[in-house]
Amino acid sequence: MKEIKEKIKKLSAEFHEEMVQLRRVIHANPELSFEEFETSALISRFLEANKIPCVTGIAQTGVVGIIKGLNPDKNTIALRADMDALPVTELNQADYKSINQGKMHACGHDVHVASLLGASKILNHIKNEFQGTVKLIFQPSEERYPGGAKLMIQEGVLENPAPSAIFGQHVYPELDEGKIGIRGGKYMASTDEIFLTVKGKGGHAATPQRNIDPVLIAAHLIVALQQIVSRNANPVMPTVLSFGKVIADGQTNVLPDEVKLSGIMRTFDENWRQEMKSRITTMAQNLAVSMGGSCEVFIDEGYPVLINDPALTEKAMDFATEYLGKENVVELEMRTTAEDFAYYAQRIPGCFYRLGVRNEKMGFISNLHSATFDVDETCIKTGMGLMAWMAFKELMSK
Hints:
The protein is an alpha/beta fold and 398 residues long. The protein has nine helices and 16 strands.
C-alpha cells in the first residue's frame, strides 16, 4: 500500500502542470448550466487521448468515463466532478481570467474537473494495481435546478455498472491548500426557492384608503414568515428563511398592484422541510387576505439534505489521514449551503468533502461565488492525488 501511495503522489506531481493548464483553459472559457459543450468536449478529448472509454451527451453535456482494473466486475466506485460556471463577471486580472463576459468559475468547478481528470490519468496508470472499476462522472448544472445529478441519475449514471459508493470534492477557501475538510452524517442543507406574488389594488400613494397596499402586505409578510423559523423550527437543527429579492414597481407617489418576493429556505430535516412549505403557504395566503389582498405562492423544490454515509466517511477520513497526515484532515461543521451531490448520496453511500484552496500570502482568500475568487493551484495536485488514493483504497477494501 505504501508503494502505491508514493506512486500516486509521484504521478500527481508529474501530471500537476498539465492539469493546471487544463484548469486555466476551463477557467478562461466558463459555461453556464446545461451549456457546458466546450468543457464536455475538452473532457472527452482528454479521456480518449488517455485511452479511457467514455460516453458523452448524458443529461445534455455530461460525460462518463470508465477505468477497469483487474477483475473489473468485483466492485465499482464512482468519482464525481461538476463543471458549470456562474453568471458572475470576473474581476481578477490573471492571464487565465474569463473571456466570456458575465460568466465565471466563481465556485471552483474548473478545479473539480481538473482534479478528476488528473485522478483519472493516475488511476489509468495504476489500473493493474487494483481490482474493480472506477466510474468517472463529469456532471453538468450543479448550480441550476433541477440539478444535473438528478438528471444523470434518471439517465442511468448509477447503473451498468452500478457503483457501491461515490466520492465528490469541492473547493473550500476557508481551508489552506494541502488540507481537506470532511464530516459524516448530515452535512449540507436542503434548498428550495420561494416565489410570492402579493396582489392588492394600486393607486395614488397619497390616498391609501382607496387602495389595497401590496407593499405594506409584503412588508408584514417578510417579518411574519420569520416566526416560522424563530417559533417553530427545532433550535438545534439550523433553518434559514431569507428573501433576497423584492420587486415593488411603483413610484414615490404610486402604489403598485402587486409586489413580488423571492427567497430561499434551507433546513436539515426532510419532514420539517415539508411542514415548513405548508406553513409558508398558509401564512402568506391568510395574512394577505386579512389585509384585503391575496398572495400566490410557488415553492420550487430544490436539492435534498446532503447526508454523508457515516461508515464511508469514516473510511474516507482514514484514507485522507494516510495520504495527507492527520494534521491536514479537519472535521467540518454543518453548512446551510446546498449541493445536488445529495441525490447520489440518497441512492448509494456517498462522501462529499472539501478541498483547501486558501493561500493568504498569495492573495487567494476570496469567498466562493465572489467576482475575485481564485485558488492556489497546488490544490489540484492534492485534489487529484487524494481522489485517486480514495478510489484505490475503497476498491481494495472490498
